[in-house]
Amino acid sequence: MNIALMAEDSKKELMVQFCIAYCGILAHHTICATDSTGRLVAEATGLPVHRYLSHAHGGIQQIGARLDLNEIDMVLFFKDPGSDSLLDDVNYISCLCDANNIPFASNIATAEVLIQGLKYGDLDWRDIVNPKTKKI
């Protein structure tokens, strides 16, 4: 499965810790991320991460384009509930996920449920509904 990772600055360390904890599961999938989140995750875990541009240079829009084409199977976008800085971007990504039935987590609790579901094959329906021949 293709998994996109994004995180607000105040949640990047949490994303890194999450990816370290679930590295064994994530290693079986294709990971993409915005630039700095992807760099931090790759450095901490050793996982190969396809990095798009930074948020400031259109990375969220690049991932959004992949979502619009239904090429991403899961999104983990850790947001800071006390900040409105990326609210429009979170809503943009969330709406694209809703439009394409793509599982979306905006916090670590939901992300853990999705990762455990991924581990046990509960999200394999994405491959049936949307078979892919290429990775990101």
What does this structure look like?
This protein is α/β, with parallel strands linked by helices and 136 residues long. Helix content is 49%, strand content 15%. It contains seven helices and five strands; from the N terminus they run βααβαβαβαβαα. A five-stranded parallel β-sheet has the order 3-2-1-4-5, sandwiched between helices. The model has no long low-confidence stretch (mean pLDDT 91).
Radius of gyration: 13 Å
**Tally of separate helices:** 7
| Oligomerization status of the protein chains | single chain
Secondary-structure element series:
EHHEHEHEHEHH
Largest sheet: 5 strands, parallel
Distance between the termini: 10 Å
Give the total of beta strands: 5
Helix content, binned percent:
40-55%
Low-confidence stretches: none
**Structural class, from secondary structure content?**
alpha/beta
Task: Note the topology.
Layout: E1 2-7, H1 12-21, H2 23-26, E2 30-33, H3 35-45, E3 49-51, H4 59-68, E4 74-78, H5 87-100, E5 104-105, H6 108-119, H7 125-129
Parallel strand pairs: 1-2, 1-4, 2-3, 4-5
Helix pairs in contact: 1-3, 4-5
Question: Could you name the key traits of this structure?
Answer:
single chain; about 140 residues; alpha/beta; about 50% helix; about 15% strand; globular
Task: Please summarize what this structure is.
This protein is an alpha/beta fold. The chain is built from seven helices and five strands. A five-stranded parallel β-sheet has the order 3-2-1-4-5, with helices on both faces.
